[in-house]
Amino acid sequence: MYQELGIDNEIVSLVQKCEQELEETFKKIDEQCDKNSLKVLNAFRKHQISEVHFNLTTGYGYGDIGRDTTETLFAEVLGAEDALVRGQFISGTHALTVALFSYLRPGDRLLSITGTPYDTLHEVIGIKENASSLKSFGVLYDEIALVNDDFDDDSILSYLKKNSVRMIEIQRSKGYSTRKSLGIKKLERIIPKIKEVSPDTIIMVDNCYCEFVEELTPTEVGADVMVGSLIKNLGGGIASNGAYIAGRRDLVNLAGERLTCPGEGREVGPSLGMNRQFLQGLFFAPSVVSSSLKTAILSSLALEKLGYQVEPKWSDSRADIVQNIIFGNSKDLIHYCQGIQMASPIDSNAVPEPWDMPGYEDKVIMAAGAFTQGSSIELSCDGPIRPPYIAYMQGGLTYSYGKLGVMKAISQILKYKE
Q1: How large is the angle between the packed helices 23-46 and 65-78, nearest 10 degrees?
Q2: What's the pLDDT band for 360 if we cut at 50, 70, 90?
Q3: Distance CA 333, CA 129 (A)
Q4: DSSP code of 265?
Q5: Residues 250-273: pLDDT tens digits?
Q6: Residues linked to residue 171 through DSSP beta bridges, in sequence order
Q7: Fewer CB in 10 Å around end: N or C, the chain?
């Protein structure tokens, strides 16, 4: 059956040896999965989720008990005061945009303390010109780069003492950069320091790809608000769209008024039958994130054995589900992504090629044979066609399917090296 998928015995043997080395690492991931599962199950029991919460609303969505209870449940699981969980959010970028426009006014200053944000936010902020950007509305922007993959505490605190900053943005996952993703302990260290110097500054965390990887959440270590996508970790591969904004109740309510309209806010917004997907996705999420982590760690060890640079290494602590593979050339990057596509359940016959994707400066190759378009909790792999030619791999609904995807991708790069 491996040969039917184009995987030879040499690669099967390589992966089996890797799995033997990873036995203790995988055991720790299973232990974290148990803790997260217990947290989720207890929240379902506490809020007495029942079939009535699956009922849909249409039109204005007044009195949607399923929607409101789902938001309360998400807030509980995320350790937040409140949460806005809606299918009207089309992506994590959209939810981040809603949050930014909710909290910033003309003359306010936004400061990123993790360097330049992810590519799709450049036109939102005004780093790249756009008539609808925050910059076009008079919002000021500045950024402070990380130093050695950690916050530059001195520069941040010095900046806050000299400038009035309405909002700080922290992007935990690396995006299309070469830096490391940020673990919760680093947030736990910097947030109290910021609050001591500038207590009124809103700290917003882009939490995409990070949910359930560690035990604590950004709001549990002092962040005012955090944002994530439901076609990533928390959707568990079940949610077909949507995102969340969670944190302080006043900030969540402001985001609700920006998503809909002032005066109506969170009271409107029909669930359209999505409550069941959101609830079931959350229920599956600890297990799915566990599978994604195992897939990433397996690929890290296997590709390192084949001579490629990887980040994080298999033994490193992790903050998100993203695995970087630094190929050093476009050929291997493209073939690896194509191999992931070939081992996908959907569109396995498609051959992804680099293209000019909206919101990105460079051509991007994206492999994602997913049940939900753009889902990155399902196994996917992508990367910009620019040096050092990094593949950003994430997801895996089950470890078995993730492993097969990695084996097929390795087969493709080895095939074209011959």
Answers
A1: 140
A2: confident
A3: 30
A4: G
A5: 999 999 999 999 999 999 999 999
A6: 206
A7: C
Work out whether strand 323-326 and strand 364-367 pair parallel, antiparallel, or are unpaired. Answer: unpaired
Residue 52 tokens read as 């009535």
Q: How far is CA 147 from the centre of its chain?
A: 22
Non-local CB neighbours of 197 within 8 Å, separated by 6+ positions: 157, 160, 161
Largest Cα–Cα separation, the chain: 65
Assign residue 15 a region: left if phi > 0, alpha if psi is -120 to 50, beta otherwise?
alpha
Q: Please enumerate, as own/partner, the contacts of 325-330 that have beta carbons within 8 Å and a separation of 24 or more.
A: 325/299, 325/300, 325/390, 325/391, 325/393, 326/178, 326/388, 326/389, 326/390, 327/388, 327/389, 327/390, 327/391, 327/413, 328/388, 328/389, 329/389, 330/354, 330/385, 330/389
Question: Mean pLDDT in the chain?
Answer: 96
Look at residue 146 in the predicted model and tell me its pLDDT.
Answer: 97
Give pLDDT tens digits for 178-229: 899 999 999 999 999 999 999 999 999 999 999 999 999 999 999 999 999 9
Report which DSSP code applies to 136: G
In the block, which residue shows the tokens 């298999």?
314
pTM value is 0.95
